[in-house]
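Standup notes
- HV: blocked on the assembly model, inputs below
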Amino acid sequence: MSIERSQLNFNEVAAKYPDFPRFVMLKTDIHRRGVNYTDAALESFDPDRHQSGGTHIFSSRDGKLTGRPESILLRDGTLVLATPTPLEQNPYVVDLIGGKLTLTDQGEALDEVFYWDKPDYYDKRTSNGTLMQNVVSARPQRLYVIPNRYCHFWTDGGGCKFCDIVNNLKQQRTEIAMQTKIKTDDLTETIREALKEKGRFTAVFLTAGSDFRGEQAFDRETDNYIAILQAIDKCFAVPKYPSQLLCTALKKEQLQRIYDQTGLMSVTMDIEVLDEEQFNFVCPGKAKWIGYQEWKRRLYDAVEVFGESRVNTGIVSGTELVAPTRFRSEDEALEAVLNEADELAAHGVSTVHMVWQPRPESDFAKEQNASLEYYVRLSQGLQDIRRKYKLSIDFDDYRRCGNHPDSDLARVFS
Amino acid sequence: MGNETLTSGDSDKAILERLNEAGALKVLVTLDEHGAPHPTPKGSIRWDGERIVLWEILESSHTNRNLTRSIWFDKPVVILLVTADKKAYKIAARPARNLTAGKEFTRHYEEAEQQRGLGIAAVWLFEPLEITDQSAGTRIAQERAARPYFTHLDQLARKD
């Protein structure tokens, strides 16, 4: 069964939604279609000054890991998190025009863009000899800690179908000597070094693969987060600091342990798809070990531990449209997703979306993401729901994160 | 999303240089989501030879939000400059770039910390669009020359 999708192009969507910022729309479409760099653009890329890709949790859309820019920034400070994409997939193209790095589409120059500057700590090594960028990755303003790059759902045959975390890890081990787990002393040393750079970072972010091992399920994952966060806590003079943990939906007592024993301020537990039937299909590991309704209950419990505006969930938007979805059109899917997001928000839980970027090493490599119009309406809908329930998204916004077009919209609201 | 560079004439550049004078009052006027003007004194505004620079201290400020809206929807802002010798200029400008990370931002951040003992949330770079002399003397002379009917006759009466 084919899904009824919007066929509007960028200019048509922009004309139809004039109150939606073009910068955020452009970022959304770059995430949707991907990006490619011309030879001239790559010649202007200076690996001593600019940040190269390769250390993050997911792979690129062309399957290559290193030697290219991590990504780009737009003039308004909007962060783009798109990876190099083969030209035959019709990505946006970054070129060098008149000495300026320029985003183009079908040969038309759109706007000046900028490579990410590399953090000062990136090429340094810890006392153990570990390259610091392999201990902590960076976004322009976020320290990105991945204490364990292996997801145990994969051993159980239950990895999420859009995800390539374990296959990416295999490539990272081979090509850049990435370790599966990081050492706590390496971590403390790296964070301390990173914080020496004035005005650079605004938040610490932590995520890892799911680990259901332990006396009760996910105790091992919980213990690991506590150890890792305590290694980070040593670098701060305050008991709580801007920080976010993206984890499996842990039980309330597990979350309480993390909150009580560490400096963590906020938590994200990604439900990935806001539809129970599709969740069971797309995320078999999460469905087996926790379940859709229980995932939601645990999100509500998390609000009791961390407080309102400190808990959210993420969705990989567009995966709700993959067959055998029950939805017959984007309109139908959008209504259902926003209804679910509304229910979550009524319990103090915010929803953010990530534009799904099909990756070659995932089960969904050949599937198609949603239309630009769908993503624009979804972003606006999620931000409107946050305003309706007066939920702040400061901890996961354009600056602390940058991967959610909907929370980019929060920039202009108090 | 236009990004064309607008150049000022020599006299305009001389006026823009006056943004850097000690004792100059600089008021930035932005528009909120309802179109209401939001004026704020901004001592950090200066001309760097190419662009007008503003240090924004508060990430959640009305100004920061309004400037974001301004760059998103290509709406100009106005800077009112009043110099120590009481000359007044209205400088219409377009936010061209918002810096929140990277080496250039760090340079501003360190400079602000040194000068004020306080970090900054963002740097805004503006392209000047148009400069209008708003000084009372200049405006009176302009009106008398161009709109001779706009007066009271007692102002024109013989005094003897």
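- HV (later): unblocked. The radius of gyration of chain A is 20 Å. Chain A has a mean pLDDT of 95.
- Next: hand off to the docking folks.
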